[in-house]
Amino acid sequence: MEEEVPNPLLVEPEVVEPVGENAPVGVTAAPASRAAATFIFLTVTLDMLAMGMIVPVLPKLIQSFEGGNAAAAATMIGIFGFMFAGIQFVFSPVLGALSDKIGRRPVVLMSNFGLGADYVVMALAPTLPWLFLGRVISGLTSSSVPTAMAYMADVTPQEKRAAAFGMLNAAFGIGFVVGPAMGGWLGNVNPRLPFWVAAGLSLVNGMYGLFVLPESLKHEHRQTKINWKRANPVGSLALFTRVKGLLTLAGLLTLGYVAQQSLMSTYMIYVYTRYSWSVRTGGLSLAVVGIVTGIYGVLLVKPAVAKLGERKSIILGYIGGALGYWAMGFSKTGLILWIGIPFLNLMGIAWPSAQSIMSRHTPPNEQGLLQGAVNSLRGVSGLIGPLMFTWVFAHSIDAKPLFPSAGSTFYLAAALILLGLVIASTALAHDHPVKATAKAT
Length: 441
Fold this sequence. Notes:
Blueprint: H1 34-54, H2 58-65, H3 70-102, H4 104-124, H5 128-141, H6 145-155, H7 161-189, H8 193-212, H9 238-241, H10 246-275, H11 279-308, H12 310-330, H13 335-344, H14 347-360, H15 367-397, H16 408-428
Helix pairs in contact: 1-6, 1-7, 1-8, 2-3, 3-4, 3-5, 3-6, 3-15, 4-5, 4-6, 4-8, 6-15, 7-11, 7-14, 10-14, 10-15, 10-16, 11-12, 11-13, 11-14, 12-13, 12-14, 12-16
């Protein structure tokens, strides 16, 4: 009879010491030092900032290559977005698995220098194919975000990982707020200037990392070789099945990520159409979303998890998310939408808590693979969400609408979050799942 192992969702975390004394020559700080942690935070922030900076100028640049044809440009923008999400989906687990073998430091630095070179290519692109090539490279090199997550898992005690992931989630929010505003300002000067600034930030960050970023993954915790059956977007998902309960957490994360695509794909056109908001007001509302995300990540995740625990934090976050999306769909004047934003951003508590549980019950030599697999879930959402939500929105405002309200897009997002809440509640009721026994290969 097999020994029963407690459900990872129902056990208290074991306390471990930060690992990683394998600092490179010339680096004396421990990987858990403030400088190293700050660098990882800056890496994620700058990745998101650079991507946000090109959001307002990339469509205009593409349109200029299409001779000013807005319809052709819109089609190409869709192709660019689908391709970027696909690259993320494919390469996130590859880079995650690579970091499990050679360490986190080289992969993170490779990403910084790769992104810098990529933005130079895009700044100089003389034709649309060159711009497309730059976007392909951008999707590949920005897939290192899971490695940054794995680095934090390496150097952070298990009971503090939710707070660490919350800080990285705040980095996403900062990039989401500052990037588009900065890109729009620079783009008014020259549409290619944001690419040059993004390149400079990435290259300077890479040079800084050469001096302050030690390795975090001990040699004894590294994979001896890359298992290509796992280091792909399909094979990496098998990691979730080796621990009963992780697959459930992956499912509720995916539902949350797909719901988030409603904001990225239809929010702006929704507020323009339903509320007749100006570009300035719409951008301000998105900035508020990003600001609240940053505040929650920095100030709320740690005390919430300390007070409620990871399990209740997940439930609280998904309840808030459902209320926030419902408010967006229900609001007829925009007032309730503003009120719903702080509720919506409670999702920023749930995601770090879920990732903390998953990280705690994954072997040290597969932290990169885990974070790569989680990032692939974001890629899946990027492939599914935009097509689904834009179709729903289009068929809620046409002459003979299939859906009764212009807010149907956000009602659908709320329904996905509620489904995730049901899944989370079901997972919490499991008493005897079997813990993984993964071994280094």
